[in-house]
Amino acid sequence: MSHRIALLDDYLGVCGTGGLSYPTAELAIALLLDLARDLPAQQASLRAGRWQSTAGIGLNGKLLGVIGLGTLGSRVARIEQAMDMQVIAWSAHLSAERAREQGARYCTLDELLAQSDFVSIHLVLGESTRALIGARELGLMKRSAYLINTSRGPIVDQAALIEALEAGRLAGAALDVYDQEPLPPEHPILRAPRTLLTPHIGYATRETFEVFYRDALEDIEAYLAGRPIRVL
Question: What domains appear along the chain, each with residue ranges and CATH number?
Answer without folding.
Answer: 22-49+57-201 (3.40.50.720)
